[in-house]
C-alpha cells in the first residue's frame, strides 16, 4: 500500500520550538544539514525529520551540493502568519483604545 505524504501547513510547521529555531538559523544563511544539526541536542535523524516538515510547509528548500543538502529559508511563506496575526493586532489596538477611553472618562 502506498502511503500519501502528509502536507504540513505553516502553522503546524512552526508549532515546534526546534523547527522555529531551525528557521532562525536559516534566516542568517543557507546551511547544510551538518551545520544545522550541530546546534541541537538531538540526533541528526531527528533534525532531518524537522527539516522535512519545514520542506512540506514550503518554509525551506534543499538543494543537493556534492554530498550534502543545503537548506534555504523561504521567509515569504511566513507572510501567512503575519497576515493572521494582523487581525489580533487590530483587535488589541481596539481593546486598548476602549480601555483608554474608559479610564479617561472616569
Describe this protein's structure:
- With 106 residues, the protein is of the alpha+beta class.
- It has 5 helices and 3 strands, in the order ααβααββα.
- The chain has a 3-stranded antiparallel β-sheet.
- It is elongated.
- The N and C termini lie far apart (69 Å).
Distance between the termini: 69 Å
Per DSSP, the total helix count is: 5
Helix content: 55-70%
- Major sheet: order of its strands? 1-3-2
**Major β-sheet annotation:** 3 strands, antiparallel
**Beta fraction of the residues?**
5-15%
What's the total count of β strands?
3
Gyration radius, to the nearest Å? 19 Å
Outline the fold blueprint.
Blueprint: H1 10-14, H2 17-28, E1 31-32, H3 33-37, H4 44-56, E2 60-65, E3 68-73, H5 79-105
Antiparallel strand pairs: 1-3, 2-3
Structure summarized in a few sentences:
This protein has helices at residues 10-14, 17-28, 33-37, 44-56, 79-105; strands at residues 31-32, 60-65, 68-73. By secondary structure, it is an alpha+beta fold.
Can you tag this structure with a few keywords?
106 residues; alpha+beta; 3 strands; 5 helices
Amino acid at each position: 500500500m502506498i502511503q500519501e505524504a502528509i502536507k504540513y501547513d505553516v502553522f503546524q510547521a512552526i508549532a515546534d520550538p526546534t523547527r522555529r529555531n531551525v528557521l532562525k538559523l536559516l534566516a542568517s544563511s543557507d546551511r547544510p544539514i551538518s551545520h544545522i544539526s550541530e546546534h541541537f541536542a538531538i540526533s541528526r535523524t531527528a533534525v532531518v525529520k524537522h527539516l522535512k516538515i519545514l520542506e512540506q510547509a514550503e518554509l525551506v528548500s534543499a538543494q543537493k551540493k556534492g554530498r550534502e543538502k543545503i537548506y534555504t529559508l523561504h521567509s515569504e511563506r511566513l507572510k501567512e502568519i503575519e497576515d493572521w496575526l494582523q487581525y489580533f493586532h487590530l483587535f488589541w489596538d481596539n481593546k486598548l483604545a476602549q480601555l483608554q477611553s474608559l479610564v479617561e472618562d472616569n
